[in-house]
Amino acid sequence: MGRPDLNRRQLLSGLGGLTVAGSFGFAATGSGASALASGADTRVRYWNLFSGGDGINMIAMLDAFRAANPGIGVKDSTLQWGNPYYTKLAMAAAGSRAPDLGVMHLGRIPGFAPGRLLDAFDVTLLAEHGVREEDFNPVLWKRGVVDGKLYGLPLDIHPQLNFYRRDVCEKAGLTGDDGNLVPFASTQEWFEGLKAAKKAVGGGLQTLGLHAADQNFCWWFFLSFYTQLGGTCVGSDGMSLTFDEDKATEVLEFLRRHVTDGYTTVGAADAETFINGSAFTWEGGWSVPVYAGAGLDYGATPLPPVFGKAATHTESHCFVLPHQRSRGGAADEGAHRLAAYVVQHAVDWAQGGHIPAYTPTLTDKAYRALKPQSEYVSAMDHMAVEPPVWFAGSTGILAQRVGPVIAGSNLGSVKPEVAARRMRAVMEKLLAMKNPMEGKAVTEGGGAA
């Protein structure tokens, strides 16, 4: 199964040898266990899937919360990223062993049976701790709402970005007086830019890292440009298929051209070649610590709006309340307090490359000073998000099924127009498939937000 670059997921081992725990209820670090043994009046059990640089940032934020709230002991458990995490979280919620607070991707909420496996937040209690709806991007907040109740409190967005080497792009004439990358407003301008960059790269390196064969990245990049064209997958009723094969074919041809014109080398180690001198690489914002640690002179922007409308794929981490039969009391209040604290102290979180969801943070001088984070903050206003259905979201079935089809088009094993038809067929089957959490298909009103 494809997943974000291992350089991010394995970064933890390179930054101190911290380990990730995969069993129920045991903290991934000593901080969680010591908190359990402390004299705190209230215990909050907290599960997350943060490893790498963001895992280290989360540990620091939890330690700061403990210092500010000595009466609350936080037992934090970091579990294996991806579907193993979601499986354990679902089993814990169904089996009365759920933690008080958890982390999910917003795109996975529709498939997690809100009301059965997730409990709703008390927005009045959140407001008492300083977190209110008006402090969030309206589109982002709405993604966490099901049937009028808030099930996902947004922490961030992590967008797909166009990372660029300033030294290479300056040599190619692609930077402005401020040293930042010039904008590209059409596919013609983009490929002209790649042509100039290819001459400046040298050394036999690829010009652009595209993750051409990775199912997750293939889907994320496709969705970005498909959204730029105004394409949608599911109708406003949340049930009907609106996938446009013509728009899809146009995007697939665009992606394929990077390979056929020699700008992308299939199978290349995209992160490594970027560090070694490639002009560009398309990658998630979580790679900021990797490239910053390599000492590069680089920048990052949202994916280029080559089809006229700005849109770049984003997913979001959010806090959730896994279902408990008797939720309430001091532990529940502590969970709300912890979630609100982390959301409001997101400058530290932004160091991992994520854009904070709490909008007052975006004007904070400390955040504006972060580079390249502040360069791509506009992605918050141009989010290309997955359809609100149970089979979508990070590491979801949708990416698993359509990602390989897109990869086949990128690699030339199937023509773009054929791939577009196959993508539509896959989505038709998924809409008719029953959500295992609810026993109903999207077309029957199941698993759609």
Folded structure, characterized:
The structure is a single chain. The chain is α/β, with parallel strands linked by helices. The model is unreliable at 1-35 (pLDDT under 50). The strands form three sheets. Strands 8, 9, 10, 11, 12, 14 and 15 form a seven-stranded mixed β-sheet that branches. Strands 1, 2, 3, 4, 7 and 13 form a six-stranded mixed β-sheet that branches. The protein has a two-stranded antiparallel sheet with strand order 5-6. It has helices at residues 6-9, 11-14, 30-36, 52-68, 83-94, 123-128, 138-143, 166-171, 187-201, 215-228, 245-260, 270-276, 288-293, 329-344, 346-350, 365-368, 397-411, 416-432, and strands spanning 42-48, 72-78, 101-105, 118-119, 145-146, 149-150, 153-154, 156-165, 208-209, 280-284, 298-302, 312-315, 317-322, 355-356, 383-384. Helix 4 (52-68) links the parallel strand 1 (42-48) and strand 2 (72-78). Helix 10 crosses helix 17 (397-411), helix 11 crosses helix 17 and helix 17 (397-411) runs antiparallel to helix 18. The protein is 39% helix and 14% strand. It has 18 helices and 15 strands.
Shape: globular
Question: Count of DSSP E strands?
Answer: 15
Contiguous helical run count:
18
Find the structural class using helix and strand composition.
Answer: alpha/beta
Assembly of the depicted chains: single chain
Percentage of residues in DSSP E strands: 5-15%
User: What would you report as the Rg, rounded to the nearest angstrom?
Assistant: 22 Å
Spans with pLDDT under 50 lasting ≥5 residues? 1-35
Distance between the termini: 26 Å
Biggest sheet character = 7 strands, mixed
Average pLDDT metric:
89
Proportion in helices: 25-40%
